[in-house]
Amino acid sequence: MIKSGPELIWLWIVIEPKNKEILSFRIPKERNMFVVAERILFHVINMYGKHQV
Known about the structure:
alpha+beta; two-stranded antiparallel sheet; 4 strands
């Protein structure tokens, strides 16, 4: 979380585990974590394709 004035804001970061590269990051305005997680994962899958977890 990041504090911006009186507000706490979530920072979402997707990191590739082997090379420690940042694949994507978002600072969403939505409060629904399921919607935010779905959107960021959809974005990363579209950019890099599916990989086993």
